[in-house]
Predict the 3D structure of the following.
Amino acid sequence: MASFRPLPRFVSLVVAVATASAAFAVPALAGDGDEVRLLVTFAAPVDAATAGEGLPVADDFSPANVNGPSAAPVDDSKVQVLEFDTTADAAAAERLLARRDDVVAVEPDTLIYTATTATTATSSAVTHSGPASTVVAGFDTSAGSWGVRNTGQVVASKPGRAKVDVGATEAWPYATGKGVVVAVIDTGVDVSHPLLRDQLWRNPRAATPRTDPVTGRTYVNDVHGWNFAANNNRLYSTPDSDGHGTHVAGIIAGAADASSGFTGVAPDARLMVLKFLEGDSGRVSDAVAAIRYARDNGAHVINASWTSPVASTALQMALYESGLPVVTAAGNTARTLEQLPVYPVAWRLPNVVGVAAIDNAGAIASYSARSRELVDVVAPGSHILSTVPGGRLDRMSGTSQAAPHVTGALALALQHHRGRNAVEVVEAVRASVRPLPGMRDTRSGGLVRAPLVLDRLGTTVPACRQISPQRFTDVSAASVHGPAVGCLVSLGITQGRTDGTYGAVDGLTRGQVATMVARALERAGRLPAAPTVGRFSDVAPTGYVHRDAIEALAAVGIVRGRTETRFAPHAITTRAEFAAIVTRTNEYLAGGPYRIYGPKFSDTVGHADEGLLRAASGLRVVTGMTDGRFAPDAPVRRDQAASMLGRLLDRLVQEGLLEPAV
C-alpha cells in the first residue's frame, strides 16, 4: 500500500472541535451517559496497555479487561480508543497525552452524518410480504433500478439516457459477486426484508466470544454483524433509525424483484451489517470499531455512505490500516470540497474512492459535492429504487445512493480478484470510467462501469463472445492477433483477401483505418452522415471506396488530414495516428473527454497529440514498446491494428457504447 501521511500537526480536543464546519453540530466530548471517549493516534503501533498507561481510564476499558481470557491476541494499532468516566478525567488525560512524544493526535468523539438528501413518502412505497410485491396506488415502479439498467426510462418525470448506469447486467455473465463480503458500515438494516434476508453474511465464528484489544468490545452471537451504537447484536430497531442502511444494502446486493424491476448491483454478494449510525448520525469511535471489525472478520470491501465535517486523524488512520478498499460518498453539500471539505473523501487516501451522484440523464446532481482533485468518479444517485424497512421498496437520492452502486460494481469484480491489493483495486475503479459530458469537477470525468472494473483487474468482458473460426493462411490459430482478427471479421468490420490471406504484416492505410472505424460506429448506431462536399482534394468524390468514411469521420473530428486540404488516404497509418483516432472515437461516442492517462513516453514528449497518445495508453488499447518507448512514427500492421481495434471494441462494450456480438 502507498505511504500514509496523517494530519501534519498534533490535534487536541480544542483544535479538533474548532476546525469543524459551522454547518454541523459537533459535540466537544460525546458519550453514552457520563462516559467520555478520546481517540488517540500514535506515531507507531501500540497496544492498549501502553496507550492507557498513567491515564484515568474507565474500569471497563482497562487493559486487564481488554486482554481477558476470551479475548483475541493483542493487536497493535496506531489508533486507540480510551474511555473515561467523566469529562474532567478525559480533559486531564488529554493534557497528559499532549506531553508524549509518541502521540500524533488526541481527539474528541465527534459525529459522522449520513449522505442522503430525501426520500419519497412512505405511503407510496412498494410493499413486500414475500418474494412478490404489491404496488401501492401512485407509486411508479416502471423505471425499476435505473442505476443497474438504464434503458432511457423516465424517472421522476425526467427521460433518461440509455446505458448511463453501472453496467451490472453486462457484467453478470462473468460475475455476480459470489463469495464477496461487503461491509455496510451505516445505520442498521432490516434483516427480515424479503429481498435482503437471504443476502446476509453469516459469521462462522459467531458463537465464540472475541474481544478487540483496541476498542475493548467483545463480540458474541454476531451472526450477521454488530450494532456498535448499542454494543449488541441487534441490527435493526425502527424504520426511522435504520432506513438509510436498509436502502444502501439493497443497492449493493438486494435480490431481484421482477414485478418492480428492482435488483441489487451484485445480487450474490453477502452483506455484513455494521451499525454505527443511529438515524442521521453516529460516533467516530463506533465507526473506528466497525472498520476494525470488517477487517478482522473477512470483509472484502467497505461501503461508507457518510461524511464528517471533522478531519479526524483516528478515522483517517483506521481506514488506512484496514487494508480494504473503501467506497465513500462525496457528500450532499452542493459545493466543491475545496469550499466545504468533508471526510473521508477529502483525505484522498490511496485505498478510498470518492463518489459523486448523477441523475438518469448523466448530469451531476445539484446536491452533490464535487472536486476536480478529491472526487474520483460518479455513479447513479438520484431517485434510486431500493429496499426500505417493512419489506418495502422506495426511492431515495444522495451521494449515499451513488457510493453503493460503485461498491456493488467492485463486489462483482472482486468475485475473481479477492486477493488483489486494496490500492490496486481502488486505482482500477478510478480508471474504469465511461467519460460523461459536464464532469469537469471530478477527477476522472466519468461514470464507473462494472465491466470496466472487471477488465482492469483481469477478467475481460469482450466485444465478441463467440469468435468465428480462423480462416486465413497468414494468421495462425496460435497468433496473438488471431482472436481480434476473428472478432473483426465476424462483426463485418474487416475482411480478408481473395487469395485466402489477411495481409497480416502489411501496413494499414489511412483510408482503410477510416473505413474500419466507420463500420464500428455504424454498429453503435452513431455513424455520422458523409458531407456532400468533401474537404480533402486527394479523396476522390466518387468511386473511391473509403471516401464516405474519411469525410464522415473528418466532419466530427475523429480523423484529420495531413494538411488542411490533403488527407493522404494511401499513406500507411502510424502508431501515433492510430492512437489519436482511438481516443477521439471513444470520446465522440461517450460525449466527454477521456482523462485517465497512461505513462509518459520519452519519445512523445512535446508531440502534438501527446495527450491523445497517453489517453489511448490509459484506455489500454495502444500500449508502449517493450523498451519503454511509444514509437509514434512506426507503421501499424494489419494484424496489430486488428488487436488494437479489437481492444477498442472491448472497451466500448464495457462502457455501454456498443452492444456485444453474441
Observations:
- The longest strand covers residues 36-46.
- The chain is about 25% helix and 15% strand.
- The two ends are 40 Å apart (CA to CA).
